[in-house]
């Protein structure tokens, strides 16, 4: 089975309020994206990696990935205006004999080999699998205009979706063929009528979005070799 990974790094990270896109920010002296790529580079079931980045920073990404000395080649291409457009461009780089596609956020550097492995195994059985964790807090639907609570959601039924998200290649290509935009890949797959299986991710598999997230990530890395 041939597995290809698409790493989405197309955003500029406006909420981070930094001069560089968040995957290029240093975390313990190493760019966030390198932490992320290293896990996939070391995984024995991953055959090929495509990194989708803003066109304005493509040379920056080439420099840091070259310096990292990965065992596997990293194909770097420019992304689109939205995450969906970027992933769609990533799909265009698939080898013809690719069986399974993993889509992951560049700004989730704490993905683990276990999460990747379980995603591949689950998707090989169900065709679509996403990492997720049960929510810990009580969630309420609130009227956006009045601020009043509409109802309290049943917490045991709510999961926070993460990446990686792993799919049979043909299914994901069909989901992206429609041209719609979505917040994640699973939404597009669901719209085809296909079922998506959720499996247990990890609470440390955070997406770095704000400066506070960088502080949390630094804590996670304490004592670890990078």
Helices and strands in order, then pairings?
Elements: E1 3-8, E2 26-27, E3 30-31, H1 32-42, E4 48-53, H2 58-68, E5 74-78, H3 83-91, E6 100-105, H4 113-126, E7 128-134, E8 140-142, E9 149-152, E10 159-168, H5 169-176, H6 185-191, E11 197-200, H7 211-221
Helix pairs in contact: 5-6
Q: Can you walk through the features of this model?
A:
This protein has 226 residues and is an alpha/beta fold. It has one domain: Spore Coat Polysaccharide Biosynthesis Protein SpsA, Chain A, CATH 3.90.550. Helix content is 31%, strand content 24%. A 7-stranded mixed sheet has the order 5-4-1-6-10-7-11, sandwiched between helices. A two-stranded antiparallel sheet has the order 2-3. It has a two-stranded antiparallel ribbon with strand order 8-9. The mean pLDDT is 94.
């Amino acid at each position: 089975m041939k597995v290809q990974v698409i790493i989405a790094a197309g955003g500029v990270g406006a909420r981070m309020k930094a001069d560089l896109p968040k995957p290029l920010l240093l975390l313990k002296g190493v760019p966030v994206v390198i932490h992320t790529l290293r896990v996939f580079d070391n995984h024995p079931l991953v055959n090929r990696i495509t990194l989708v980045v803003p066109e304005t920073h493509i040379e920056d990404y080439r420099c840091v990935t070259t310096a990292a000395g990965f065992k596997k080649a990293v194909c770097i291409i420019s992304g689109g205006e939205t995450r969906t457009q970027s992933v769609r461009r990533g799909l265009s780089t698939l080898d013809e004999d690719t069986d399974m596609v993993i889509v992951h956020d560049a700004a989730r550097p704490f993905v683990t080999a276990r999460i990747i492995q379980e995603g591949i195994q689950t998707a090989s059985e169900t065709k679509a699998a996403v990492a997720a964790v049960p929510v810990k807090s009580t969630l309420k639907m609130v009227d956006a205009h009045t601020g009043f609570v509409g109802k309290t959601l049943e917490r045991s039924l709510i999961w926070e979706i993460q990446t990686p998200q792993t799919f049979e290649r043909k299914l994901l290509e069909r989901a992206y063929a429609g041209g719609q935009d979505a917040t994640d890949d699973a939404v597009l797959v669901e719209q085809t009528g296909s079922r998506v299986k959720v499996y247990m991710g990890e609470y440390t598999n955070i997406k770095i979005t704000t400066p506070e997230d960088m502080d949390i990530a630094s804590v996670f890395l304490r004592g670890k070799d990078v």
